[in-house]
Amino acid sequence: MNWKVKIKVLLKESILDPQGQAVEGGLDSLGYKNVSDVNIGKYMELEIEDVVTKDKVKTQVDEMCQRLLANPVIEDYTFEVEEMEG
């Protein structure tokens, strides 16, 4: 089976997000005074082929996030797994 994976990585709440603060300040200076708590992160989509079960895909994706795609010390991640047609 083939799977589509969508991964979202954000800084942990306890970590200062200077890029998010800069964007929030820029939006404020453009007149968007009602915007707050801007967080900048990463979004990834990938396909995994030839894995039989969704649980095995989840295990693999969790391992990939822990080892490369996220920094677990300062980032949290979530992901969705969908079976692809065909």
Automatic annotation (TrEMBL):
The record's section on SUPFAM superfamilies has:
PurS-like
Has the keyword Cytoplasm been applied to this entry? yes
Where mainly located? cytoplasm
GO MF: ATP binding; phosphoribosylformylglycinamidine synthase activity
The top EC class is: ligase
Assembly and oligomerization: Part of the FGAM synthase complex composed of 1 PurL, 1 PurQ and 2 PurS subunits.
Q: What does this protein do?
A: Part of the phosphoribosylformylglycinamidine synthase complex involved in the purines biosynthetic pathway. Catalyzes the ATP-dependent conversion of formylglycinamide ribonucleotide (FGAR) and glutamine to yield formylglycinamidine ribonucleotide (FGAM) and glutamate. The FGAM synthase complex is composed of three subunits. PurQ produces an ammonia molecule by converting glutamine to glutamate. PurL transfers the ammonia molecule to FGAR to form FGAM in an ATP-dependent manner.
The text of the family note is: Belongs to the PurS family.
Q: What is this protein called?
A: Phosphoribosylformylglycinamidine synthase subunit PurS
Look up and give the organism this protein is from. Selenihalanaerobacter shriftii
Upper classification of the organism: Bacteria, Bacillati, Bacillota, Clostridia, Halanaerobiales
Q: Which gene encodes it?
A: purS
